[in-house]
Amino acid sequence: MSDLGTLSVIFDLDGTLVDSEPNHYEASRQTLAAHGVPGFTWADHEGYVGISARESVRIWRERYGLRASEPELLAETDRRYLDLARTRTRAYPEMRAFVELLAAGNVPMAVASGSSPEAIEAVLAGTGLAAHLRTTVSADEVPHGKPAPDVFLEAARRLGTPPADCVVLEDAAPGAAAAHAAGMRCIALPYVPAQADAPEFATASLLLRGGQADFRAGRVYDWLRDGAR
């Protein structure tokens, strides 16, 4: 048994484990510009944090009246994102330390993300986190993305852990809602601190209102260990 008893930990990827949102923003900006929508800003992008790439392009088509199909837009955005992700993705230092603590304590871990399987693989390989995070689930592999619980439930199934024994780390409101719907505890660290009062975050077992700035690997590990006793 691990240091945390029967607990397993499931990580969201983008904005939680790694600071990949700048890459997502740039890929989105380039794709929209190529389809006649200039001026997509970071503030615009913040509205898509936590939403899968597939759902994002669906919204684009409706919002901007794009003629390209969803598969075309998704493929374009994924290609641009992968080019950036392989070389420009940074793992948050405290998150890397947390993953290493969990690995040393033999705690089962998984990644459950709205990104494509290829993007997840590229980011984990590029940051070196793949050495510890071998179980991954993409929203592309389940019927519904976040805020539906599907991606987290599939991660629990692959880990062989009951949902009630899983703890999710999430930076976005749709992800916190998905964790709650899955019957899992959630450690929430809002990517956009101004969104910390969103009702979805109120369901979290631990809310770090300042996001990554408030996250300390050792402190959160101790919190989990104390709760597992």
From TrEMBL:
InterPro entries in the record: HAD-like_sf (IPR036412), HAD-SF_hydro_IA (IPR006439), HAD_sf (IPR023214), PGP-like_dom2 (IPR023198)
Matches recorded under SUPFAM superfamilies: HAD-like (SSF56784)
Pfam families the record matches: Hydrolase (PF00702)
Gene3D superfamilies (UniProt xref): HAD superfamily/HAD-like, Putative phosphatase, domain 2
NCBIfam families: HAD-SF-IA-v3
Protein name: HAD family phosphatase
